[in-house]
Write a structure and sequence with these properties.
alpha/beta; eight-stranded parallel β-sheet; binds pyridoxal-5'-phosphate
């Protein structure tokens, strides 16, 4: 199947109120252009230099989501080009983003990444660390970031019950944080969970935005 066919198949399997981030990491701009031409506007990347390089060759109205571990020394380089960092895993990173965004007069959407998987290799904060971040004075002083939701990755396993449980924990975290820290704002709305292998399960557990790569663009080497 072509990228275009894959794309429309994925789109048709996602409810209208769930957004799709097309994860284009390692894939060439020509592949991105194919589904841009089909209407896709949100793309996900996990390397700063890759976004910088690709955005210069693609239309300006693409919304780039940063979805991997963002090194603090890469923040300055990537902030002019992205609309959202889905992978906030520390207060220090958030501070750096706020600082660089202020310098260029932008507001960057951010999701708090929580570790829901059992695998040690998966990144993200504990729930307690997230609460600590949101309770901090530093956070309250930030004007150039907006926390718009949460993000998480389930364990890579065939055990559907476990995946369900992990996604439902992320949904629970969202539901606890919302009244506690975002009662008077309208932008804390996103639960980013689900990838090629598990996005259907994630949608069943309340995902509002899925990040799908290989099912659209093919496998990565
Ligand atoms: C690579 C990646 C995805 C997409 O993975 P696929 O299995 O190719 O759909 C989603 N989220 C994150 C954080 C990723 O790094």
């Amino acid at each position: 199947m072509s990228i275009k066919d894959n794309y429309f198949e994925i789109l048709s399997s996602i409810p209208e109120n769930v957004q799709l981030v097309a994860v284009s990491k390692t894939k060439p701009v020509a592949d991105i252009q194919v589904i841009y031409d089909c209407g896709q506007r949100i793309f996900g990347e996990n390397k700063a230099h890759e976004i910088v390089e690709k955005q210069s060759q693609l239309p300006d109205d693409i919304e780039w989501h940063f979805i991997g571990h963002l090194q603090r020394n890469k923040v300055k380089m990537v902030i002019p080009y992205i609309s959202c960092v889905e992978s906030i895993d520390s207060l220090r990173l958030l501070k750096d983003i706020d600082n660089e965004a202020r310098k260029i007069n932008r507001v960057i959407d951010c999701f708090l990444e929580f570790k829901i998987a059992r695998e040690e290799t998966k990144s993200g904060m504990t729930f307690e660390q997230g609460v600590e971040l949101l309770s901090s004075n530093d956070y309250k002083m930030m004007n150039n970031i907006r926390i718009c939701g949460v993000m998480g990755m389930a364990t890579y396993t065939k055990d559907v019950a476990q995946i369900k449980e992990e996604f439902s924990r992320l949904k629970d975290m969202f539901e606890i944080l919302k009244p506690q820290f975002f009662k008077y704002v309208d932008y804390f709305t996103q639960i980013s969970m689900g990838m090629s292998d598990d996005y259907q399960i994630a949608i069943g557990q309340g995902s509002t935005i899925v990040r799908v790569g290989s099912s659209i663009f093919g496998g990565r080497v």
